[in-house]
Amino acid sequence: MIRFEPDTWIDFLMRPFAMVAPDSNVYVEIGAPDLRFAFSILLGVVLLIALRPRVVRSSPTLALGVWTVVIFIIWMLTSGNGRYFIPGLLVIGPLCIALAYRMPGTRGLRACVALLMVGLQLFAVVAVSPWQSWGWAQWRDDSYFPVTLDEQARTKPATYVGVSNISYSLIAPQFPQQSHWINTSSLPDASDIASPEVRRAQALLTASSDIQLLVPSRPDFMDADGNPTPALADEVDKMLNGQRLAVRRPLACRLLLSRGLLAIGLGLTELDKAPDRLKATVGFWVCPLQYPVARLPQQKEKFPEIAQVFAAVEKQCPRFFAPGQTDVVKSEDGWVRFYPQSDMRLYVRDDGRVYYKYFRSLNMVLLGESAAVRSGASVDCATIRGRSGMPWQREI
Q1: What is the rounded distance in angstroms from the CA atom of residue 158 to the CA atom of residue 178?
Q2: Comparing C-alpha atoms, which of 25, 13, 140, 26 is closest to residue 73?
Q3: Residues 282, 306 within the same domain
Q4: Which long-range contacts (CB under 8 A, 24 or more apart) does 344-350 make?
Q5: In terms of Cα–Cα distance, which of 345, 330, 327 is closest to 189?
Q6: How far is CA 262 from the centre of its chain?
Q7: Phi-psi region of 9 (alpha: psi -120 to 50; beta: other; left: phi over 0)
Q8: Which residue numbers in the chain have pLDDT < 50?
Q9: Using CB atoms within 10 A as the burial measure, which of 275, 289, 338, 380 is most buried?
């Protein structure tokens, strides 16, 4: 996923200053302004201008600064995602204080600079509080994500397959340690044998003797036996077919009730007031899967002109519209393909217009008429609404 990777060298070089912005999705999903990297650069420039000999000679501060720069570059070249940069986020504060200590001037001046940095960072945290802004449910002493496992789930290892963007991986430690977990929502199609993710996924499925679907239940699409309705099962099959999986018929799903899922929908304070119907139907379906199964007819073979539009955009902007990630899906007024690696959707409407939408933008962006796009009309790949530019430049 390229959600936090820089798109240009300007984005790369400006990331320390972009992290100051209170916007979400700068280096983590939530708004988490971090002034410390900008502080460290400014203090480093001041020290270099001052040309103090003890700055340039070997010292713990210099070693820590070089180490931070190296891991920052590696981080930016690999993901730019803050959750994979914990060592850097931990050491940047002490580095700022060390740099302030080496500034020219009196001890009082250096102390004031250090206190100013701490105060401004605390103000940023208070002004854009990260607390309660991302989690769907609070942790409690009894369980971090309550789910009631039946005897089979508690004792029998299996390969569990998820299809939703949220993986609900918090429940995995409650299952047998020998179990395996895989989520297909962002996997390329199984036909993409060049993808290492595909090869690993297919190898795991081939070696698994018991493959189970695990998805949140939908009480409004549940039959009298507690199974998904046939229509919903058919839709799940479409989501699984790219990995040559299907829900086994006749349906024989088990329901693992979950107060964690109930809390997501109702809030912890309302759990005890939840209707009995919800308490008895909200949880995770566990359904036996069949593997391998025949592939469904490819829509691009049925609709060559639609496929040509998607292919034309993918050829011009493979970074954001990488081919082969998911199949084309029919919507109410056209066709859509989701590109999970870049959080993009590409639409071809029945009226002939082509749009894209980044997941953080409010509205779709018109690319042009399908005939023009299909014939190679230029697509601006450098300006993606909701993503391109510094956080304060982005439009939604």
Answers
A1: 8
A2: 13
A3: no
A4: 344/320, 344/384, 346/310, 346/313, 346/321, 348/306, 348/309, 348/310
A5: 327
A6: 23
A7: alpha
A8: 55, 299-301
A9: 289
* The token pair that represents 291 in the structure block: 């593997």
Q: What share of the chain is helix, strand, coil (3-state, %, to 5)?
A: 45, 15, 45
Q: Amino acid identity of 236?
A: V
Q: State whether 261 and 346 are in the same domain.
A: no
Instruction: Render pLDDT for 127-183 as a digit per residue (tens, 0 to 9).
Output: 998 776 666 666 665 667 889 999 999 999 999 999 988 888 889 999 999 999 999
Q: Are residues 255 and 322 located together in one domain of the fold?
A: no
Considering only CA atoms, which of 339, 340, 360, 357 is closest in space to residue 349? 357
Position 143 in a domain: no
Question: Which phi and psi (to 5°) does residue 58 adopt?
Answer: -55, 130
How many domains does the structure of the chain reveal? 3
Q: Can you give the pLDDT at residue 42? A: 95
Answer whether 0.85 is exceeded by the pTM. no
What is the extent of the structural domain holding 24? 9-127
Residues 110 and 238 in one domain: no
Query: Looking at residue 138, what is its pLDDT?
Result: 67
- Name the 3-class secondary structure at 124: helix
Query: Between the CA of residue 252 and those of 184, 201, 215, 225, what are the distances in Å?
Result: 21, 24, 14, 9
The Cα 62–Cα 40 span in angstroms is 12
